[in-house]
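Hey all, quick one. A colleague (J.T.) asked me to put the zinc ion job into the tracker so the inputs and the structure tokens live in one place instead of scattered across chat threads. No bug as far as I know, just bookkeeping. Sequence used:
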Amino acid sequence: MANHLARRCGQPNGAMLESDMKKLQAKTLTDADVIKVIARVGGSLFAIQDAFAPIPHQVVLAKLRSMLKRKLLTGCDCGCRGDFSVRTP
Ligand SMILES: [Zn+2]
């Protein structure tokens, strides 16, 4: 949790055209894809985003947010490293 203040949210990871964003919505990533990647690379937001390249970081973050909301994952979407993990029932 100490990492949360080190990096503020809203920092764009790269310029992204709005039209590109619309083409690549979070729904192009499946829950299973994300769970598999977390098992492989760990829970760091940046490692997860890199694993999905060339899918834009913002799209990956949006997907993680949607999974957090549905309680499939635990972690933090503020823009810090996240520490995501798969929530076990
Ligand atoms: Zn955070």
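Adding what we noticed when we looked at it: The longest strand covers residues 73-74. Residues 53 and 63 are 14 Å apart (CA to CA).
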